[in-house]
Amino acid sequence: MVFFSMGWTGSTRTWARYELISLILAGLSTPLVLSVHTIVSTDFATSVIPGWHTTIFPPYFVAGAIFSGFGMVATLLVVARKVMNYENYITIGHLDAMTKIIMVTGTIVGIAYLTEFFIAWYSGNIYEQYAFTNRMFGPYWWAYWSMMTCNLIAPQVFWFRWARTTPWFIFIMSIVVNVGMWFERFVIIVTSLHRDYLPSSWVMYSGSLTEIGLFLGTFGIFFTCFFLFAKFLPVINMAEVKSILRNRE
Amino acid sequence: MGILDKKLSLRDRKKMLVGVWEDEDQLMAGAGALAHAGIHIHDVYTPYPVHGLDRIIGARRSKLARIAFFCAVTGLTLMTTMIWYMYVHDWPMNIGNKPVRFTPSWAPVMFEGTVLCTAFGMSFFFFWRNRLVHGIKNELLDIRQTDDRMILTIETTDGMDEKAVLDMMKNHGAVELREFHNGVQTVI
Fold first, then answer.
1. Can you list the residues of chain B whose pLDDT is less than 70?
2. What is the chain A residue with the closest CA to B136?
3. A87: distance to nearest CA of chain B, Å?
């Protein structure tokens, strides 16, 4: 504990600096998220590959990151609050708010899918048009329709209050969101690369054991770190909880 | 370490009057009354931030924002210099005939460098200014000051009516009153 407390005394001046640094870091982090995902998306968008070379990518990826992030947090949070008896701290109201954001960002991502498709048709670019025809009806049609179902259609259930306030249902839906975003990344990368401009270069892709192993390994490292954190460190900031409690006689 | 805040360290204090509160509203009222009476409050230790208390005790505005700004300018300058050196001076490359000079394409790197230097600089300054280091022993007057009690400390001066100060604290809801003298606390 001495290692982690670092000499903390709760001095007023320390708290004032703590709140100021939190505010400034929050103000920096928000444009950071926007810029990072915009740049990552332009790694694709600035190429010439049909299906990648489109200006919708920056807002599409930013919304997708928030969508995927909230889905992942919901997956962990629903279980953690139950297992650790934190239902009074991470309330149904919090889950309600998160599902609303999931629905909004999922709808934005869905609109981006439709925009891509519309622009591909409207542009008259035969390569772009084929890229989308191939995505919908080609050998990876199952991935595309899984993506559309999980990301655009499924989150619409959160229009219903029951869906937003039922933890076990939120957990299932959050897994659906995670799966949908995995398929989105699969569709973007695989369907555009396996058939681009030159038909003699067209190939089929399937994951090797090494790739599958790496993927499972990422689950392993993440959950190892998460479980270690949840077991040994405070999951909820006590000071923030205390500051909203009122002392009563 | 802690050169700037040395005068706030408890180790160097000869005698202090200590009040323990349970309620933040009563603490705020008590601190306000003491400050209004001209009593200099050394510090208040709370388990969570109590808004407005820093103003009442006369704490100076933090320089953290200024440090953040200077770190941001440093990061921006560093990254701009880095890109200029790599892309204009050292090894300019013809990429689609795009100009080898300052363009908006430099903006992401400059922005990220700004954020990086600001975050690191602010964090290091925060730890240094608050004397927070791994392994350092906390200077706690009461083990509960990071739990559910609020501790207000007043350093005594010559001519101070200590009884009046203690009575003022008690009248504003202090649940315990103590004297801190040469490292030893006595409950009054």
1. 1-9, 11
2. A7
3. 22
